[in-house]
Amino acid sequence: MSDLSLPSLVTVAHGTRRAGGNEIARQITRGAGVALGVEATAAYVELSEPLLADVVAGLDSPAVVVPLLLSTGFHVRTDLPRACAGGPVVLGRPLGPDPLLAAAQVARLVAAGIEPGRPLVLVAAGSTDPVAWRDLRAASHLLADAWGTKVRTATLGGLGPRPEAVLTPDDAVSPYLLSPGLFSRRLAEQCEALSVPCADVIGPHPLVVDLVVERYRDLAAGVRATA
Question: Could you give the angle at the alpha carbon of 99 between the alpha carbons of 93 and 102, nearest 5°?
Answer without folding.
Answer: 105
